[in-house]
Amino acid sequence: MTKPNPRSESSWAELLKQKRTAAGWSQRELARRAGVHQPQIVRAERGDDLQQSVLARIAAPLGLAPTLAPVAPAAAAAYDDVVQPNLESWRRAWPQVDPQVFAVLARLTRLGHHIERSIASLAAAQGLNSGEVMVLGALRRMGPPFESTPTGLKERLWISLPGLKKRLDRLVARGLVERVDNPLDRRGQMVRMTARGDQTLDRLMTHPAPVFKAVRALAEDERRGLSNSLRRLLQQLEGGAEGPFDGPA
Predict the structure, then answer these.
(1) CA distance 91 to 100
(2) Which of 15, 96, 12, 94 lies closest to 47, judged by CA?
């Protein structure tokens, strides 16, 4: 998405640079305050095409809208999330630590709450909990005939076998999955999603949770960059050693 007034790109870029210079900020400082990368400031001041969401973040600290029309500080603040106003206080309290470290952790925490609430609400509309939805989703990802051994499901869901059994028992009682004989192991069983379970999962995805809509609204390069950054965080924290994480039973 481009600026709302593409004919004024050059003038807007000049005004942005003037406002930044008048504030005594370097491009790096504006990038820090706006929560964007410095090259994005460079592109904005050249009048390059940028995402509307990026322009809004760049404009907000200077009291600008992503058009030529200045806006009141209160309106500019509407572009910020609840974490951004805390950056300065973190900097004062712990000057030796980059405040973006605290900001990342705070945003991950808030996003985690949003994800849990959204998926739980979506699942509840179908009489399920989020853990049960995860089982159905894992079976769908297996491909037709949407079946797996319990061990295979456990590895995909990062949960313990006892925790998985509780979910499966409830899903079997609802007729959403069934236990069938394992043709490769006469002593074992497979778990298969039923047609009813498949239809239930389709209904869930027909009305995606707000978090899904929010992620889809990001540009493709933003999603990829965010995913790669989160992947690196998990690699550092988990080191490839994944233990069971049962979540909602």
Answers:
(1) 9
(2) 12
Question: Taking a C-beta distance cutoff of 8 angstroms, is the pair 215, 225 a contact?
Answer: no
The CATH T-level fold of domain 86-249 is Arc Repressor Mutant, subunit A (1.10.10)
pLDDT digits (tens, 9 = 90+) for 45-84: 888 777 777 787 788 788 776 554 344 444 444 456 788 8
The alpha carbon of 107 is separated from its chain's Cα centroid by a whole number of angstroms, namely 10
Provide the token pair at 173. 């009682």
pTM: 0.56
Range 6-80: architecture per CATH: Orthogonal Bundle (1.10)
Cite the DSSP H helix spans in 23-98. Answer: 27-34, 38-46, 52-59, 73-77, 87-93
Q: 100-126 b/e with 16+ CB inside 10 Å = b?
A: eebbeebbeeeeeeebeebbbebbeeb
